Amino acid sequence: MMTLWILTALTVVGLTPPGSVTARDAPNDQGGQIVIRWDDIDDAANSTIALFRSTCPDTGFIEIAAEPVSSTEYTDAEVADGCSYYYRLVVRSDGDSAVAPVVGPVRSSAQWFNSGRSSVLIVFALICAAFLFYIFRARRGTKMFVRRIAGLDAIDDALGRATEMGKPILFSFGLGVITDLVVIAALPLLRKVARKAADYAIRLIVPNADPIVMTAAQETVKEAYLESGRPDLYNPDNITFLTSDQFGYAAGVDGIILREKPGAIFWLGYFYAESLVMAETGHSVGAIQLAGTTETTQLPFFVAACDYTMIGEEIFAASCYLKPEPVMLGTLKGEDFLKLVLVICITALVVLGTAGAITGNGGAALTRIHQAVSTWLTPAS
Length: 381
Fold this sequence. Notes:
CATH class of the domain at 150-323: Alpha Beta
Strand order of the largest sheet: 11-10-9-12-13-14
Mean pLDDT: 83
Distance between the termini: 61 Å
Low-confidence stretches: 1-13
């Protein structure tokens, strides 16, 4: 009887091996990972779970990790794709141990598609569909409404005013370089201004802070004069490089403004703290000024000192207004449509979340919908 009691006691106090041990290829990854999971173990706090790995089911097991007893999962990131692996879990505590059955074989492999990022694929498909839809409509000649930009409509008025006053025109890209998108977007505007300047026989001055931008500006102005049939009016000395220094460039431009007193000034490019200094100088000589930049910190200064200001993406859309090609027009309309959809989605989520929070338990369904949509729109890492 005593022997039976001792065996029973040992069975009670002995360690329990992990149950329901599984080893599977890690989902939605680039390969090289195997996930091992097991049930929670209610043993002593000082117990640990040792994980062993081998390429054979009976021998060659090597310890790869030691996890606390509270853990139920381990990711083995040191495996080769296509190789079969076997795993064994051992619970250890104060010299005692319990061994779980061997699991395997299991192989790791890379997945072609991360299902956790399905929302990204769906949104990408919708974006492409919107762009293609409007591009095809534009190619078929469908008339589509595009909001007018006051600054672009005022270009002809500004050039006409400078012509009537017999004064030159000044065009500045600011401190932008040729890799800045806003500078690339401003080149078609320079072409339009140069073409009008050639038609009206007005002098066009383009001071630059970057030599590559200066070269691009010279070629743009030269082509515009050729298109207008007035190549004789083109003077490369009017398109010069001043300096790359910020306030050195501002001082040089201000000097040109005070000496030449242009009738129209175009600030289209990338500007920093010098924007207000140059715009105020242009205002002091009575020039009509048109500005456009993507640098939001400088927009208030241009709004205060200039007659017309293109805000944010308006300067990117300028080339589409000047020469509405189907691809550009379709892209512009597609972007506007996607912005509308985005505003509607954000507003709907805000309303759902707010209504669910205000109504309390009565709005549990609204809260669940809000959380489900938010989770779906948040792609997995």
